[in-house]
Structure prediction request, 339 residues.
Amino acid sequence: MKNAVTVTGLVPADRIGRTLPHEHLFATMTYAYPATGEEAYRPITIDRLGEIRSDLMTNVNNIHLDSSCGQALELKKAADAGIDTLVELTTEPIGRNPERMVEVSEFTGVNVISGTGQYLAHHQRPWALEASREELAELMIRELTEGIGDTGIRTGVIGEIGLFEPVRPAELKVLEAAVLAQRATGAPLWVHLMNVPVAADALVVFDEYEPIWERTAFCHMDFDIRDLTWHERAMERGISVEFDFFGSVWLPVDHYVHCPTDPQRLALLADWSERGYADRVLISHDVCSRVQFTSHGGYGYAYIPTIVPRLMDQMGIDKELLDIWMIDTPRRLLAWADS
Prediction:
């Protein structure tokens, strides 16, 4: 039996269980999105929640998830609601914290899987921008098979690998390196798409470098569901399509203006499932800011296991689909290691 690689060790495939495949526990985007002015540093208070939800990057505290945010208590609520595994897709440049992930995992009993690789070009360190494709792949392979630095804590997925819009050469280089690392290890690959049509750029790389299609996922495919061309092309190749904005608290403005509602998400996913694509669906929240935590008026990590089943009941959608989307599909991607 293959195993998932978690921050606390190997977990057999049959113990991966109900999974949130795209979340963040510890992260900081402050240096890539340098909010300025007095307002940027004000505490997050209830009278400012609406303002911050309209633009998550305007408040430094909101996009800095350090050890003061109560992540263990937040994740414990999801554990109590039936979540067994969480994939933590924060990469090194944006605040990955493997030691704290171990603490959160041990406190909550949730399997936590950490990611390796580089994010968007404007988040990358200078050394990564200058490194060769092979050097980047070598580091990913080492973190997957040996551990992060001298911690001994292994990563269990590649990603999230970032592609902006338009895609920058540095990002394509990292994606090429990610596929090399995937082919060398068998590890799953998560690709962040800044908008759905960016899938076209990723597929060009994939056609040349040949990923393990059934262990590859496209993130944020619920940015826009008005045109399903790239969603369906991805699924036809065997790529899993991830709808990871369930329970979003931000307002549908600017970059998110075409985001669907959760009932619209569920209706489309149910339709795809009826058409034979149920095993190509992943669902998550992408918690990456403080206003998404329950302590700041958000839904936290427990929205899907607590609210989504009720929505499905009200919409007449078979709740057994959740077992495919949250157990079967994640298990296929995450169980890759023999040792």
